[in-house]
Amino acid sequence: MLATENKQKSILKRIEQVVSVIMEENPLFKEDLNYSEMVKLLVNLAQENLTFEDFNSMPDTELKKHCDGVMAIEILSKIGRDFTPEQMVIFEDAIKRK
Question: Which pLDDT belongs to residue 52?
């Protein structure tokens, strides 16, 4: 049990560091995303999809790339939440033309 707890703390600490760096490098992330929620989401994703050994051996650059991608998707998922129905029609029309 202690080993599992230490592994979880290790994953958490590493992801916290990566998220901090990404948010400092990209003010949009810092402005539009909640740090704690992002860390929690990324920790859950790592634990669900990777063994501890795979996570631990992943280079920081690769981990940062994966975290950055998930954070970008989170921002994109917020598009349209506050749109009026008219704005949503305009947005959907613009997407269809691309």
Answer: 92
* Contact by Cβ (8 Å): 42, 70: yes
Sign of CA dihedral 56, 60, 66, 68: positive
Token duo for residue 75: 């921002």
The pTM is what? 0.80
List, for residues 13-22, the tens digit of each pLDDT value: 999 999 999 9
Section 46-53 average pLDDT: 93
What sign has the CA pseudo-torsion 78, 26, 16, 48? positive
Question: pLDDT exceeding 70 applies to what percent of the chain?
Answer: 95
Radius of gyration of the chain (CA): 17
Phi, psi (degrees; rounded to nearest 5) at 24? -70, -35
**Residue tagged 């998220």 (tokens):** 19
In angstroms, what CA-CA distances link 43 with 30, 34, 55, 82, 89? Answer: 18, 14, 10, 28, 36
